[in-house]
Every structure is written in C-alpha cells, then in structure tokens.
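can u do me a favor
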C-alpha cells in the first residue's frame, strides 16, 4: 500500500536534486562562455572554452620558448653584451594582493596559471568574476597578467633592447584590435621604464566589453595586463574610467613584484645604465611568442596560457 507513495517521494527528491544541480551547471557554462568572449581565440584552448574542464591549463605550450638556448659558439662575442638585469620571474598568480584582486575580480576564487614551456622566461595567470545582481542582471570581469623575460646573447643582442622591441609590438597590437571602438592610448608613468595604457570598447553578442590593456617594460621584462568588464542581462556597462584606473594600479603592483622577485631591482626608473646582474641560465628569449600574448586582448601572441597570440576580447 505504501510502495507507490514511497516511489513518488523518491521521484520528487530526484527531480528536486536535478533542479538544484542544473542552475550550478548553467552558471558554470555561462562563466566559460563569458571567459571565451573576453579572451582571444588563441587563448580559448587554455581557458577551457573548448572543453568541459573550465581549466585554462588544459593545453601545454608547444611554441619555441622565449629563452631558447642559443649555440655556445657565440660565447666570445657574448662577453661584450651586457647581461640581463632580471634573471627570474615571480609566480604569476601571486603578483597581485588579495585587496587588488578583490577590487578587480571580486567573485574570483583563485587564479588560473597558464601553461608554459619555460616558466623562467614566460608566465601568466588569469581570473574571472561573475556577480549576479538578480533581476538587474550581472557584472562580468576578466583579468589576465602575463610576463615575458628576455635574455642577452650575441645573436639577438641585449635583453633590455629585445624587451623594448617587444613592448612596442605589444602596444601597437593592443591599439589595432579588429572591431574595437573608441580606442584611446596614453603613456603611463610610475610603472617601470615605460608603460602605455590602451582602452577600447568591443561589442559582442553577450554585451559590450570595456577593455583595458596596460603594457609595461621594466628592464628586460615586459608585463601585459588585460582587464575587461561588461554588464549582462540588462545590467549597465561598467565605468571605463574606473576600470582603467584599477588596471593601471594593478600593473604597477606587478612591476613591483618583478623587482621584488629579483631582490634589489628598481621597479621605477630605468637602471640599464648601471651594472647589471648576472645573466640567468637561459640565453636569450626570442620575441616570437610570449606569456603576455597568452591572455592579452591585443593581437599579439600568447604563450603564458596556451600558444601564441595575445588574449584579446575578440571572437
């Protein structure tokens, strides 16, 4: 007599469990869709956009490492080349304080470190945040930090010169994103030897993304910080000026972290004229692909998370 009723109760419990599970799956999928919209196609594999894992470290970097070891035959002429000032990079997911991350990506639980074939030369980390404001909609934020370190050698020249060339390339590509509107570019002081902020709007089916790319060079290291936000499902677009201010503050923190990791470097003014620190094991990073490219919304390449081409809000 009671068995049909018990079966009905079990069925109701099972249905309730499925209903509870579906929203969380929908939220997870929505987050992945938004991350894909915020990053460039080249970074999609690393960001888990093409899989159910949701992990940006799903693919390994196969491109040539920026610190590819050159032939020792050039050792004689290398004696006349000034060695690189910075010989290591900080752990990318630790370069920003909890307070800064709370301001930029308040709903992010942790950073996702990108895969790298040479962590001494190229690293990167990304965070994403989706804040649900109920019937008003939601606010999405995506942040990526990538660092590329160059080494001196006779074939490619001095590390800081290579870094400067790569810096110029990153700035140019960040300001040349297809489909970008209201693009503005301006120099930034107090962030290493040179820094530039590029900002623009990018319309996608999910909404209009307010993109900020800040590129900074400190000696032989180039930092590329990408930060964008969008109001979804009826929520208003974030204030671009506020996003830019937050991104610029964050990049200064990253530059300071590079200096701290090398103990004694100058994160402010250039020290290229002063005696440089001994070079690291690696020889010289080729400016081909980089960590900054892996998550930077500029058209440049990216290696920090996946392959090559900077993460940009295009796709």
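np, heres the sequence
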């Amino acid at each position: 007599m009671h068995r049909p009723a018990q079966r009905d109760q079990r069925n109701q419990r099972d249905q309730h469990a499925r209903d509870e599970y579906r929203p969380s799956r929908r939220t997870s999928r929505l987050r992945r869709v938004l991350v894909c919209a915020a990053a460039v196609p080249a970074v999609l594999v690393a960001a888990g956009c093409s899989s159910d894992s949701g992990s940006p470290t799903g693919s390994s970097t196969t491109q040539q490492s920026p610190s590819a070891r050159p032939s020792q035959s050039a050792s004689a002429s290398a004696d006349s080349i000034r060695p690189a000032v910075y010989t290591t990079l900080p752990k990318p997911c630790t370069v920003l304080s909890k307070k800064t991350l709370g301001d930029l990506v308040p709903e992010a639980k942790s950073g996702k470190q990108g895969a790298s074939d040479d962590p001494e030369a190229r690293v990167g980390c990304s965070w994403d945040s989706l804040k649900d404001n109920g019937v008003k909609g939601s606010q999405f934020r995506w942040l990526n930090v990538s660092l590329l370190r160059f080494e001196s050698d006779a074939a490619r020249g001095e590390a800081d010169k290579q870094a400067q060339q790569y810096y110029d390339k990153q700035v140019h590509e960040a300001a040349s994103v297809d489909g970008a509107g209201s693009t503005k570019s301006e120099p930034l002081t107090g962030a290493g030897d040179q820094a530039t902020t590029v900002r623009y709007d990018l319309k996608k089916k999910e909404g209009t993304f307010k993109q900020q790319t800040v590129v900074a060079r400190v000696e032989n290291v180039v930092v590329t910080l990408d930060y964008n936000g969008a109001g979804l499902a009826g929520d208003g677009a974030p204030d671009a000026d506020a996003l830019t201010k937050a991104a610029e503050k964050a990049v200064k923190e990253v530059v300071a972290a590079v200096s701290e990791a090398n103990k004694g470097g100058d994160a402010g003014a250039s020290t290229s004229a002063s005696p440089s620190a001994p070079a690291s094991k690696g020889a010289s990073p080729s400016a081909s692909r980089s960590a900054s490219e892996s998550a930077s919304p500029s058209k440049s390449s990216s290696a920090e998370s996946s392959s090559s081409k900077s993460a940009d809000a295009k796709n």
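Strands lie at 112-113, 122-132, 138-149, 181-187, 194-204, 207-218, 221-232. hope that helps!!
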